[in-house]
Amino acid sequence: MSNHFTGLSLGPPLGDQRLDLCDLYAFQSPTDNSRTVLILNANPTAEALHPDAVYRLAIDTDGDLVNDVAFSFIFSTPVDGRQTVDVFLARGEQSRSPEPVGEQIFTDVDVSFGSQPNVVTAGDITFAAGSRSDAFFFDFDGIKNLFDISGKRNFTAPHLAELGGKTPWTGLDSNTTANVFSIAIELPTNTLDAKGPIRIWGRCSLRENGTLVHVDRAGHPSVSSFFNTDDTKLEYNASEPSNDWNRWLDQFVHLLGHTGHYTREDAIAAIEKEGTLPDMLTFDPAKPAQYPNGRVFTDDVIDYRLAFLTQGECPPSGLSPHTDTLTEFPYLGPPHTP
């Protein structure tokens, strides 16, 4: 749930967990490296998703920061513990519409809430949606020690000096029994017709009075969490990646000046090197997936982000990846039972 705690209030979009995008992953299939796996996780309660929302995975295949391919996921109203999902695949101009347009490639697919995923195929595309074990690992109490020593949460001021050389970390993974609602797609990489690395991002939009309101977005892990504020997160979540550099660069530079004593020039260089802006996950399928090239379940993205924020001053947490992930689709393990 690296994208879960957005802004200092840590609240979900519009106070509704169903609208909360938690993590985005992109990697080669471990059994066939000619296929790409995309996973968008939402709703940290791992319950049914919002029936009035459009959940989307969007892909830029040519580097112009504009969608070229988009998968849209529309979920039914849950009835007696059952929910279904329709999946649309749009290309070209249609992929830039916020509406679920394009070819409907899956219809009324049952969402799984038990241990057995409902894996379905349409041609060479594989799909599943439902409750799964969350692969994200982090030490939340350690993060609070790092940023919340005074009792007032402030993600702009890591308290490394106040710790006097002591580690902020507790050594305990806060997410060992967490579940999440997972949307997983696997397809042949060559069907994306990419010209070099692809850029992927997720969006959640809620239909209100006939209009889609963009309420959350996901790209780089833990970027929105640490770089956003309560004052800006609504605007940030509603904005488009193509506008990120012009709109958000100064805010990101300002934060890095506080957290890592970056000069403006050094902050811009670091942002450019990582590709932090635009907030889209970059993945070159010709290279092994490891963040920031895509993202896999073993990536310690919190250690990575805190090292980025502090110019390497924050010590690593020492946590290990979860061991219940799978080598076969849908890759995340069965959900934990209460």
TrEMBL record:
InterPro entries: DUF4331. It comes from the Bacteria. It comes from Mycolicibacterium vanbaalenii (strain DSM 7251 / JCM 13017 / BCRC 16820 / KCTC 9966 / NRRL B-24157 / PYR-1). It holds the Pfam family DUF4331. Residues 316-338 are annotated as: Disordered. This is DUF4331 domain-containing protein.
